[in-house]
Amino acid sequence: LNNCVLDLKHNLSDVSEKITVMLGEMTNCVKSGEFLAIKKYIELWQPERFVTKKEVEDIMDTSKSNHNTLQ
Fold first, then answer.
1. What is the pLDDT of residues 28-70, one digit of tens each?
2. Who contacts 51 (Cβ-Cβ below 8 Å, separation ≥6)?
3. What is the pTM of this model?
4. What distance in Å separates the CA atoms of residue 65 and residue 26, rounded to the nearest whole number?
5. Is the dihedral angle over the CA atoms 33, 37, 39, 43 positive or is it negative?
6. Which of 2, 5, 17, 45 reaches 20 to 30 Å from 35, CA-CA?
7. Selection from 24, 27, 26, 20 nearest residue 12 by Cα
């Protein structure tokens, strides 16, 4: 019976330690309300429609070439 109680205490200690670690990790997680706010901004900004510097340079070069061809 003593060994059984010691095992239970050891297991309880392990579980308590794991819960403490999990709670610490959860403080680093974003809350759902914060996530939804960020999601709204991303949907508003539509970053998938942004162009890169290289793409703008290519567009400018093409535009210059077309302009020079017309003259």
1. 898 999 999 999 999 999 998 999 999 999 999 999 988 877 7
2. 59
3. 0.46
4. 56
5. positive
6. 17
7. 20
